[in-house]
Amino acid sequence: MSQPESTQADTIRLAIESDIYNGVLAPGASLEEGRLANRFGVSRTPVREAITQLVQAGLVSKTAHRRAVVANLDAGTLLELFEALAELEGSAAFLSTSRMHAEERAELLSIHTAAAENLSTNGDPNVYAKLGSAFHQCIVRGCHNKALIDTTEWLALRVLPYRRFQVVAPGRLQRNQTDHDAIISAIFAGDADSARDLIKRHTLEQGDALMRFIALNKTSHADFYPSTLAEEQRL
């Protein structure tokens, strides 16, 4: 049975994200729909959907001739997004410390435990990334403030592809889990101030680590991926 087109689009988007973060696709590399469709064995429809999602996230841009290319990442904008998200998640964590229901705390602990098990058994890093997103989402929703939840989740969606870089950055997953250990401990201890400060620092450090990672990849493209600007020939 074939996958639904929406699922196919997610699979294609995640694969392209990984190629971008790993340096396989350099800034300026063309994403040609026909070659991508052949690569993944699908029609052009899920390919177009995946590219649209990547454009919305800022990882891909469309030229005047409607040609999709890997975008040059704007470091300043990314840092502003992470800075705003850190403030919002901090406020949500502060409120969640006293407002989360017992069932929500149990769900948060279950997500955190599953992530730890995935990491300890060298599981699929993409699964870990999804669990990490669920961890943050659970804390945000636990604040029970609809305006704050809606705003935070909208911004979290904007930076989701950039947060995912951790699955390819050396050492980031273990650091991420250590941070989550401290955050969940503060929430369960009822220490709202610490919960707020810890998740703010955690999210800001994600942005800082991403900037360092992007800088390193930009300087190494020519040396390590000399053919990436002609990527459309492979795709």
Give structural notes.
The chain is mostly helical. It folds into two domains: 5-72, Winged helix-like DNA-binding domain superfamily/Winged helix DNA-binding domain (Arc Repressor Mutant, subunit A, Orthogonal Bundle), CATH 1.10.10.10; 75-216, GntR ligand-binding domain-like (Four Helix Bundle (Hemerythrin (Met), subunit A), Up-down Bundle), CATH 1.20.120.530. The chain has nine helices and two strands, in the order αααββαααααα. The protein has helices spanning 5-22, 33-40, 44-57, 75-99, 102-120, 125-141, 146-163, 172-188, 192-224, and strands at residues 60-62, 68-70. The chain has a two-stranded antiparallel sheet with strand order 1-2. Helix 4 packs across helix 6 and helix 5 packs antiparallel against helix 6. The longest helix is centred in the last third of the chain and has 33 residues, at 192-224. Residues 219-235 have low confidence and may be disordered.
pLDDT below 50 for ≥5 consecutive residues: which ranges?
219-235
- Helices, by number, come to 9
Query: Which percent range describes the beta-strand content?
Result: under 5%
Radius of gyration: 19 Å
**Terminal residue distance:** 25 Å
The CATH superfamily label of the largest domain reads GntR ligand-binding domain-like
Can you tell me the CATH architecture of the largest domain?
Answer: Up-down Bundle
How many strands in all?
Answer: 2
